[in-house]
Structure formats: structure tokens, C-alpha cells
Input
Amino acid sequence: MTVRLGLLGAGRIGRVHAGAIAATPGAKLVAVADAVASAAETIAAETGAEVRDIAGIMGASDVDGVLITTPTDMHAAMIEEAARAGKAIFCEKPIDLDVNRVRACLQVVADTGAKLMVGFNRRFDPNFIELRRQIDEGAIGAVEMVSITSRDPAPPGPDYIKRSGGLFRDMTIHDFDMARFLLAEEPVSLFASASVLVDPAIAALGDFDSASVILTTASGKICQISNSRRATYGYDQRIEVHGAKGLVSAENLRATTVEVANADGYRREPLLNFFMTRYTAAYRNEIAHFVAAVEAGGPISPSGEDGLKALLLADAATLSAREQRVINLA
Ligand SMILES: NC(=O)c1ccc[n+]([C@@H]2O[C@H](COP(=O)([O-])OP(=O)(O)OC[C@H]3O[C@@H](n4cnc5c(N)ncnc54)[C@H](O)[C@@H]3O)[C@@H](O)[C@H]2O)c1
Output
């Protein structure tokens, strides 16, 4: 069977997913829609898909599933429309910035029986998959402490920040999902400390660009997350998990492993610069997982519920940072 897909949104991440679909056996990008015709036309020319409008994809009988890669404030309505149209749905994170809107949307998904997967791509990164496999196989014994470092190479512009929902809902939300994925236990308390150390324009918009978050589970497992909107050396994505019997960690990726040593010291390439290159394999695995789940039927993960839980942690972190207090999540 070929799973026939429609792409709603041909921006940065839409282009990445179009490439992932092309690399997935058993998947075909049938149609692409974007408010900017040239954006849709470029992907259509590269993939052989047709350019259609959103209604033309939602209502199409030759489309089994849709990928929603439009700006965040359009996701919930599009999920509902696609669910009612009987499509399988892959939606980029976050589902919405408002938890009540997310809950209403997930109700429609439940009522229609639609299949919804949320784009927490890091669960599909080969390094993090192996890290999780080592944990599951008992290589480090019981997990005790998780450390997640996640720094973007440079802050986005003010227009992006204004629509982003803030650092925790836009950026840390990926780390909250990874924390839940690795702890295998829900956090019961959270403390976040956040500052503006990178760009004063971000402070003017009421947001933060640097943050540390500590999550604690009922059994006492601790996860610390370190975020910055700036890293001069590239996209800094590392995870370390400490357990009763040892440590498992995943390091940063570079374009090559070449190292030059001379009288000035040791020099290696900078880190892969941003998500499009750092997580190429993760996005491909993610789309392959979606396609396989559409083909096989049954439940899909990460689910809408995972999207809601990560957003609840992001909301708690926003409150914690603003009020400088521990938030009881239980
Ligand atoms: N999982 C990840 O790693 C990841 C990475 C980047 C972005 N994202 C998420 O993906 C979403 C899109 O982000 P992006 O960076 O690709 O944004 P973007 O601005 O590059 O792309 C969005 C696209 O949607 C189109 N669009 C806007 N309004 C539209 C409308 N009414 N009808 C049709 N098309 C419309 C725009 O023209 C644009 O091409 C956001 O929710 C973001 O949080 C996730």
C-alpha cells in the first residue's frame, strides 16, 4: 500500500518533511498547500506533488493523511478539520499555545477516532533512540538523573518571538517531551529560572532567551534542562542520563569527525548548525513511523496527549520563571 499525503504549509519545516516523505518507501506526497504560492510550487516541482489549496487537500479522496506544518496558531483548527475529513494527521509541535484549546481539539480527535501524531522529532533521533535502548536494556540500572542541554545557534527575529508563545512553549517543549520520554515517569514538581542574556529585544517582548528548569518525579528522579537561544559554536544538543549502575550520554554531531592538531592546539568542525541538518535522520524516522502507523492502524506515538502534557509543563515553567517559585504539578 502507498500512503498518500498532503502537506499543509511549505515553510522551513514543511520543506524538511517533504524531503522525508520522498525518502520514505510506501509514502507519496500527492499535494502541497501554502498561502505563498511560490513556496508550494517549489516543493511541488521538487517532489512531483500538485499545488492545491487547503480545502482541496482536506476534502481530497486521493489523500490518506495530512502533515500540518503551518504556523502554530493554525494547528488546532486544521487538526479538527482533518479529523472530521477522516484523514490521518501528523501535526508539528505545539498543537496550540492554550491548553484549553488543545483539550477541545483532542476531544474532536477522540470523537472522530482520528489518528494524530505530534512532531516531537527528537524521540526519533538515532542517538537518542540508542540512549533510550541502553536504558531499557538496563545498561545503567535505574534512571536517577537526566541532563538535557539544548541551545539554538542564534535567536529568532521579533516576529517569530511574538507568535512563539515564549521560550518554554516554543523551544523547551521539545526538552519537556524528551524528559518524559527518558524518565518514564511523570514529573510532579518543576522549578524554572529564566533570564534575558542574549537579546534585549526579547525582554521587550516579555520573553526569555536563557533558562534552566528542574523537574522532579514522585520517586525522586530529577531532570535538569539547560536552554539558550544562542550558541556561537552551533546547535548544541546533548543528553546525559545517570543511573544506579552507570552513565549513558549522547554527544553533539559535526559534519565530519576530522580533527586538526598543530602548535595552536586541537581544532574540530563546529557543530551542525541547526535543526534541519542536525535532525535530518530524526525527521526521516519520524515520517517513516507516521506512514507505518497509518498503514498498520492502531495507536500512534507521540500522541496528542503527549503534546498536551509537554504544553502543561511549558505553562508551569512560564509561571515558575515569572513568579520564581516551585510549581506543584500533582
Ligand atoms: N519539530 C521541529 O523541529 C520544528 C522545527 C521548526 C518548526 N516547527 C513548528 O512547525 C511550525 C511551522 O514552523 P516553520 O518554522 O516551518 O514556519 P514557516 O513560517 O517557515 O512556515 C510556515 C508556512 O505556513 C504558511 N502559511 C501561513 N499561513 C498560511 C495559511 N493561512 N494557509 C496556508 N499556508 C500558510 C507560510 O506561508 C509558510 O510557508 C510551527 O508550529 C513550529 O513550531 C517544528
Q: What stands out?
A: The pocket of nicotinamide-adenine-dinucleotide is lined by residues 9-14, 33-36, 39, 54, 69-72, 92-93, 119, 121, 275 (CB under 6 Å). The first helix runs from residue 12 to 22. The chain has twelve helices and 15 strands.
